[in-house]
Amino acid sequence: MFTPTRHAPDDPDLDRILALIRENFAYMEGRIDPPSSMHRLTRGALAKACETGEVWSLGPPPRACVVLTFKPDALYIGKLATDKTLRGQGLARQLIAIAEDRARALGLPRLELQTRVELVENHHAFERMGFVKTGETAHDGYDRPTSITMQRPVTP
Predict the structure, then answer these.
(1) Cβ neighbours of residue 48 under 8 Å, at least 6 residues apart?
(2) Spatial CB neighbours of 5, under 8 Å, sequence gap ≥ 6
(3) Under 8 Å CB-to-CB from 130, ≥6 apart: which residues?
(4) Maximum separation of any 2 CA atoms in the chain, in Å
(5) pLDDT of the chain along its 156 residues, tens only?
(6) Helix runs in 9-129, H state only
(7) What's the CA gap between 107 and 17, in Å, rounded?
(8) Which of 11, 57, 96, 140 would bridge with 62, disulfide CB 3.0–4.6 Å?
(9) Smallest Cα–Cα separation from 86: which of 78, 77, 95?
C-alpha cells in the first residue's frame, strides 16, 4: 500500500509529480485534438494548484497523483495519473476515494471530471468507478465536442 500525501506549494516532490503527469499523458499525443493541457503545465502551476486546491500523491516517491479543484457544487478531479508499471493495482481508485473523502469534508455533493472524447478507454475506466456522463464541451475554436464531463455523487 502506498501512503497518501497532500502536497504544499514548496514541496520538492512537485517536480516528480510533474514528470509523472507528463510521462503518463504522453500516450495522448496524436490521439487527441486539441493537444493536452499538460503541455502547458509547469511546476509553478502545480504549486499554485496546491494553494487554490489540493494536489495529492501516493508514494513515496509519487507513483500516482491527482489535482483537486474546488467548484461551487463539485470537487473537480484533474491530472489523474498512475505510474504505468503499477496500473491495475487500485491506485486510481485510492485517489478517487481520497477525492470523495475531501468532497464530503467540504460539503460538496459530487465529484466531477472531464476526459477527452477520443479516450474511450478512460470513459470505461471512470464508469467502472461509478462516474456517469453528464455533458459534453468543446475547446475554444472547435465546433464539435472535444471532452465529456462525468460526475459521481458523494456518498454520505
Answers:
(1) 9
(2) 13, 56, 57, 58, 59, 60, 62
(3) 152
(4) 44
(5) 799 999 999 999 999 999 999 999 999 999 999 989 888 899 999 999 999 999 999 999 999 999 999 999 999 999 999 999 999 999 999 999 999 999 999 999 999 999 999 999 999 999 999 999 999 999 999 999 999 999 999 988
(6) 13-25, 43-52, 91-106, 120-128
(7) 27
(8) 57
(9) 95
The sheet carrying 110-116 orders its strands as: 3-6, 54-59, 64-70, 75-82, 110-116, 147-153, 132-137
Is the alpha carbon torsion for 54, 91, 36, 141 positive or negative?
Answer: negative
Cβ contact 131:74 at 8 Å: no
- Backbone torsions φ then ψ of 74, nearest 5 degrees: -165, 160
The residue whose grid cell reads 490521439 is 31
User: Which cell goes with 12?
Assistant: 520538492
CA-CA distance, 94 to 97, in Å (whole number)? 5
DSSP bridge partners of 153? 110
The whole-angstrom separation of Cα 45 and Cα 152 is 26
Q: Which amino acid makes up residue 138?
A: A
